[in-house]
Design brief:
single chain; 60% helix; mainly alpha
Length: 89
Amino acid sequence: MIGMVITPSGAPDDARMLAWDQLRKLKDRIALAARATPDAYTRVHLDESLMRINRALNATQTIGSGGGQGAGGILILRGEGAEPAPAKN
């Protein structure tokens, strides 16, 4: 699922948006489980999974670039507009 979100894979934009949404939901569930587990090995495994999911969700690369496919839906879900932010002086 992470690969589908961050790598231009030829998957339709709708599928990538759904995968992105599922990663957000999974992130919340894993975070709860990591806090609740007394087992260090399980907690470390869950923390690593969270790190990977966070990287995918916070990826700065343009999703779908180069293939003519846009990432408009994912950018909108992330709260980013289609227009670039004004330059800061």
